[in-house]
UniProtKB/TrEMBL annotation:
It comes from Litorivivens lipolytica. Keywords: Cell inner membrane, Cell membrane, Electron transport, Flavoprotein, FMN, Membrane, Phosphoprotein, Translocase, Transmembrane, Transmembrane helix, Transport. The gene is rnfD. Its EC number is 7.-.-.-. The modification FMN phosphoryl threonine is found at T176. It comes from the Bacteria. The complex is composed of six subunits: RnfA, RnfB, RnfC, RnfD, RnfE and RnfG. The keyword Acetylation does not apply. It is a multi-pass membrane protein. The chain crosses the membrane at residues 71-89, 95-113, 125-144, 202-222, 229-247, 259-276, 288-305, 311-330. This is Ion-translocating oxidoreductase complex subunit D. Belongs to the NqrB/RnfD family. The lineage of its organism: Bacteria, Pseudomonadati, Pseudomonadota, Gammaproteobacteria, Litorivivens. The keyword Transcription does not apply. Part of a membrane-bound complex that couples electron transfer with translocation of ions across the membrane. Its main location: membrane.
Amino acid sequence: MALITVSSPHAHGPMSTATVMRLVLLATLPGVFALTYFFGFGTLTNILFAALLALGMEAAILKIRKRPIGFYLNDGSALVTAILLGIALPPASPWWILAVGILFSIVFAKHLYGGMGYNPFNPAMVGYVVLLISFPVQMTSWVAPIGNFDGSVLGPIDALVRTFSASSVDAVTAATPLDVLKQNNSLLIEDLWASNSQFGSLAGVGWEWANVGFLLGGLFLLYKRVFTWHAPISMLIALTLLSAIFYDGGSSASGGSPMFHLFSGATMLGAFFIVTDPVTSAVSNKGRIIYGACIGVLIYLIRVWGNYPDAVAFSVLLMNFAAPLLDHYTQPRTYGHKKKTLQKETD
């Protein structure tokens, strides 16, 4: 009888790898719904095309590697990678952007290292960073949210046309609120909010509700015990503390309030769907706390003083490098052994 060698993570009983992946997919629905409502159907076209590409590339690589295709496709990991990348990309991204991103996510970041369980870096974030560095114009052309400019968003047909023939649909694009704040050097925060219809109550129009949606999905996964609280909560606390320390009340040089950073960009998506990746994060609870906190610090540093308005992908990949080191120095003590204590020498 042929035995299948499967790498980590290992899950038993009702919480199999496939079950965990399906729960993650289910948890993304509130955030995807918010993105679709405020930015149109472009996010859905991203997700659908990216999913088809990911499944096709996964099957092709598995065939080349002579691995059981059905067994590995059924675990849902390729689908989760595709959906996370599709969510992170600007709505209705050109098809070739999606193809390049999936290629680097599935082929290079995942299977080049041996497949699921062997990849040291989060595959979706690798694909995103490759695209951001290689195609900065396309990666920063976000569709304007509902209520801005002409007040409309992309419908399903327009989104498909824009994806496969970008020049056919003249959609209105705008900089993200994080980018607007980063480029501001003359207006007080209060005046910037009043002069730009992209800003809502806490952060940007649409962005705040998308983050609320991913927060709800993350709490659902915590309730289902898909992951522990250590990494996501420590990331959010670190981001909150650092933004509170450096918040100057709203001057023209302000980096933004804590609530702005919590509900802007990919904060909640990163905290509950990226940072919690069991393969590329730290393993011990203490290590996860340090891992998440460092990501929160890096997100703020890059957002405010770096060259990119959002920084979740870069922060996660940088800490993926450090995860093995954290695991080495935060190993829990072996069961049945006490911590070493210094004893005074007696005469």
